[in-house]
Amino acid sequence: MASKGLDIKTIAMIGCGSMGGGMAQLFAENGYHVALEDPSQDQVQAVLVAAKASNIPSDRFSKHTDYKSLCEALDSPKVFFWSLPHGGVGDKVLEGLLPYLEKGDIIVDCGNEHWENTERRQGKCVTKGIRYVGCGVSGGYQAARRGPSMCPGADDETLALVLPLLRTVAAKDNNSNPATGAVGTGGAGHYCKMIHNGIEHGMMSAISEAYTIMRKGLGMNLDEIGDVFEQWNSKGELQGTFLIWISRDICRTKNMEGKRVLDEVEDKVVQDYTGEEGTGVWSNLEAVERHVPAPTLTVAHYLRIASGDRHQRAQIQKTFGTGTGDPNKDHTAAFPPEELDVDDRGKFLEDLRMAVYTACLAAYCQGMLIIEKADKEHHFNINYVELMQVWRAGCIIQADYISETLLKPIYDNRDLKSESSNPLLHQHVASDLKRGFPSLRKVVASGVEADHVIPALSATLEWIKYMSSTTLPANFYEAQLDYFGNHMYDRKGDDGKGLPTQGKHHVEWKAA
Ligand SMILES: NC(=O)C1=CN([C@@H]2O[C@H](COP(=O)(O)OP(=O)(O)OC[C@H]3O[C@@H](n4cnc5c(N)ncnc54)[C@H](OP(=O)(O)O)[C@@H]3O)[C@@H](O)[C@H]2O)C=CC1
Ligand SMILES: O=C(CO)[C@H](O)[C@H](O)COP(=O)(O)O
């Protein structure tokens, strides 16, 4: 099948692991011939076996162990999809391919690559007339097979060429529109995918915290919790939220012995240690470097990295001591989470739902603030309407209500050059955060009282307070800075605007 933008029938898939393998089958299912290349022949074989099981004709694939034969199997222009680990691997593959590439050939890098690597490679390719698209892909291996969310960034001409191809395979939203679009120039696609993952981590943490509150704080069993997630996902502010939906399944899934799989899972996330993924680290570095407070994302990340070294936590736990003397108490933590003092469980669960929603909305807002800042500073020329569409299906942060009701109206039909896209400056978003605040405060207060681990929920509460206040404890902070460092301060109302510029006053708080 030929795509409208490119008259090709064959594509290459370089990297045939979880994601690349799924996408290879997806392209083949859509009529393309897929030339497979991966150093692991087992991976390539696994793709062919899975494709056979899906009744995809075997002649839709060819296997290649060198770039020459891979390139000979392709049409002109040659189109390569990459699904590789981030970092040096991509550079190595590009070096290997370059001798066989011609003007007009296209590379679509579908890994979670760092956007600066993407732009560096785009710079290298452009001198040879080769088009390099940084295309974040989301939804995990199942979406890769069924149809992922695809977030491409490149120059307009290149995007116009590849988008018909991406639209063919991308996930489709409820109106059958593909979850892809012309997101922006240069590394914009990988930048937005990186922030997608930052938002993802904030949402995941808030939901995981709610799970523990239900399990340990309210004494609910997994069937009951699964039912709660199902209800949350079916109506109201959390409806159509992919992570809530999979949370239901996680609660219900049993192993061969009929026991819950979740109860076998150790409490540690190690991707940041193994270097397997980088998006969480990078998105938080971006937030800090661009002066965007994104605590829901950041504390979620701290929880992950604290969790990763469980061995160290066990040692610290011993140092703190866990003995309360009461054999009925939980002895698996220095500050074991206790049952919550809740009068009306139904009412509290409604507060919990709103608290989780508020944290998810906050994570989205914080992510969008980082993107907006980077866009202004780096001139990604982001098309926010298209970006919203990328997140409407197939991706991990899919959240129908947040996207459709709250964020989309900010970007639709607006001239963002003259109007701010800061979600917090839009009344309907501010109203929703304000509406969720009392529930979030109740949940955080109860959670804190009972020693629950609730970083994303509590950090979101603080974020809402400090982002909407003009009487922060920062006046005292500023005074301390001026006292010891002569760092200067503004007097109340000095410039009338409170812009982030250095103050003009210093006081000798104590004679030197
Ligand atoms: N898993 C997920 O849920 C998602 C992953 N991603 C991103 O997609 C990319 C791929 O991830 P995933 O499929 O999970 O990872 P896998 O490890 O399953 O797949 C990566 C594949 O790339 C192969 N590879 C390594 N070096 C080369 C090379 N020089 N040439 C060709 N192939 C090579 C690996 O082979 P070998 O095993 O022999 O090293 C492996 O088969 C990553 O950037 C990841 O961050 C994006 C969204 C979701
Ligand atoms: O990109 C993804 C989803 O969007 C991948 O699932 C990725 O593996 C998640 O890893 P991490 O949590 O370390 O970012």
Automatic annotation (TrEMBL):
It comes from the Eukaryota. Residues 189-510 form the 6-phosphogluconate dehydrogenase C-terminal domain. One of its GO terms (biological process) is D-gluconate metabolic process. It catalyses: 6-phospho-D-gluconate + NADP(+) = D-ribulose 5-phosphate + CO2 + NADPH. Its EC number is 1.1.1.44. Keywords: Gluconate utilization, NADP, Oxidoreductase, Pentose shunt. It holds the Pfam family NAD_binding_2. GO terms for molecular function: NADP binding; phosphogluconate dehydrogenase (decarboxylating) activity. Pathway: Carbohydrate degradation; pentose phosphate pathway; D-ribulose 5-phosphate from D-glucose 6-phosphate (oxidative stage): step 3/3. The active site is at residues 193, 200. SUPFAM superfamilies: 6-phosphogluconate dehydrogenase C-terminal domain-like, NAD(P)-binding Rossmann-fold domains. InterPro entries: 6-PGluconate_DH-like_C_sf, 6PGD_dom2, 6PGDH_C, 6PGDH_Gnd/GntZ, 6PGDH_NADP-bd, NAD(P)-bd_dom_sf, Pgluconate_DH. It is an enzyme of class 1 (oxidoreductase). Catalyzes the oxidative decarboxylation of 6-phosphogluconate to ribulose 5-phosphate and CO(2), with concomitant reduction of NADP to NADPH. Homodimer. Belongs to the 6-phosphogluconate dehydrogenase family. This is 6-phosphogluconate dehydrogenase, decarboxylating. It comes from Recurvomyces mirabilis.
